[in-house]
Specification:
mainly alpha, 127 residues
Length: 127
Amino acid sequence: MKSFVTVAVGGALGTLARFGIGEWLASDRLFPAATFLVNLSGSFLLGALLATMLLRGDDTGDRRTARLLLGTGFLGGYTTYSALAVETDQLLRADHVALATAYAMGTVLLGLVAALAGIATARAVAR
């Protein structure tokens, strides 16, 4: 039950952070900048978090709680690949095929690059 509550608290806080960024970047622009920003920054942070935790030891005790709170909970609530899917569909339905394709593929590919950069950053800091 403790793990469930830990993930729920982290998820609620991550969702609120994502909502705040969405409000801050709200605009009439066609490109969904807020979702793009949270997904890329979340990928970087998750890569950095998990690499840092792996370098520090086994996934037990406080490290497991931190991973559940920050990784599964906060970053799981913060990132939003479901919004990526909805926004891509909206762009396609509005006949913005090139933008929809660039947005969807760019988010996934740059998300991978961001996660790898997070891992590399964590390793560099640990040295």
